[in-house]
Design goal:
The protein is mainly α. It has a single domain, classed as Orthogonal Bundle (Tetracycline Repressor, domain 2), CATH 1.10.357. Helix content is 66%, strand content 0%.
Length: 270
């Protein structure tokens, strides 16, 4: 059984505040601000947190350091996103490479594991125990586009999985597979965010949380959703979509004009 053991909020605040005052040389002020913002966004939502509150919780006297390092709330969110996604992309590519080594790269469950475990790995680290809740909050924040804010070099593992899914499910229409894949990723993010919350609550009450079982069950659910049979209703919509995308048939050519009758007209006149 794997248990989640997040750092209590009060202890976390004291550690971050000490670091921002220079008592923890390994963590600079920008990193302290990122950690603090990630936790507050995860706990209160994006709209529920001001830049001033982030600076205060990070032990800063004012928010000038926050504006110096990041400039705006959206830029701060992007920095949190990219810092986490850089690590997750590395983990995901390593996982895909291991799937190739074990000849599981054509197995649907293995590919879903490569979606889930890199994100889930952050649940058991002190830095990442709020990261999925931050992702969930950012995904519903109207002024922030997760996909557009993720750089291409941080997205390689995501794209590799999509290509391997197409090979693993060759009979699945590409449009439908992409919809299922993206919906599956969203489901994973919100589910892991719930696991973070449950782990935090149970840790305070000193109750174990079987994180391993929850994650393995999540993998089963997502694999089942991606490979689910296509209903007649969805097939009908696919046919309608394909018909709408087909170019119209060219109009028939107009009939040729009749041949000139100059010679016949001459004879009639003579």
């Amino acid at each position: 059984m794997v248990t989640s053991n997040p750092t209590p909020a009060g202890k976390d605040k004291r550690k971050l505040a000490a670091a921002s005052r220079g008592n923890a040389g390994s963590i600079d002020s920008a990193d302290v601000l990122l950690l603090t913002a990630q936790r507050l966004f995860a706990e209160k939502g994006i709209d529920g947190v001001s830049m001033r509150e982030i600076a205060r919780e990070a032990g800063q006297r004012n928010n000038s350091a926050l504006h110096y390092h990041f400039g705006s709330k959206e830029a701060l969110m992007q920095a949190i996103l990219q810092g986490g996604m850089r690590e997750i992309n590395e983990l995901r590519n390593d996982y895909i490479d291991q799937l190739y080594s074990s000849e599981r790269h054509g197995e649907l469950r293995g590919l879903v594991e490569a979606i889930v475990w890199p994100l889930a790995s952050r649940l058991v680290t002190s830095r990442g125990n709020t990261y999925n809740r931050f992702l969930a909050a950012a995904q519903v924040y109207p002024d922030f586009d997760l996909a557009a804010s993720t750089r291409e070099e941080e997205d390689r593992g995501f794209r590799r999985i999509q290509e391997l899914l197409q090979r693993a499910l060759p009979d699945m229409p590409e449009l439908l597979l992409r919809q299922r894949y993206l919906a599956g990723v969203s489901f994973v993010i919100f589910s892991l965010a719930d696991y973070e919350r449950m782990g935090a609550r149970r840790s305070k009450r000193q109750r174990p949380f079987d994180l391993q079982r929850a994650i393995e069950n999540l993998i089963d659910m997502v694999a089942g959703a991606i490979a689910a049979p296509i209903s007649p209703q969805v097939l009908a919509r696919l046919v309608a979509h394909d018909a709408a995308d087909e170019p119209p048939e060219p109009a028939p050519a107009p009939p040729a004009p009749p041949a000139p009758r100059k010679a016949a007209a001459k004879r009639a006149a003579g």
